[in-house]
Design a protein that fits this description.
Length: 67
């Protein structure tokens, strides 16, 4: 796998956590739980999620680019 992309299946909101889970070899539930727990800490977690939502390509674009 060359990069991170948002998968078509397994999405809850935008697929950011599912994409990160695929990239790092863990379950989407684990990444979602870590993201939720990180929101209890001060910092720009919501901004980071939105930036990843915009920056990460959909799986359709990622697959089309690899051909």
């Amino acid at each position: 796998m060359n990069g991170i992309h948002r998968p078509r299946d397994g999405r809850m909101i935008a697929g950011v956590c599912a994409g990160l889970a695929r990239r790092f070899g863990t379950t989407p539930t684990t990444v979602r739980l870590l993201a939720l727990l990180s929101c209890l800490l001060p910092g720009p977690q919501f901004v980071a999620y939105i930036v990843l939502w915009v920056m990460l390509p959909n799986e359709d674009r990622h697959v089309a680019r690899s051909y």
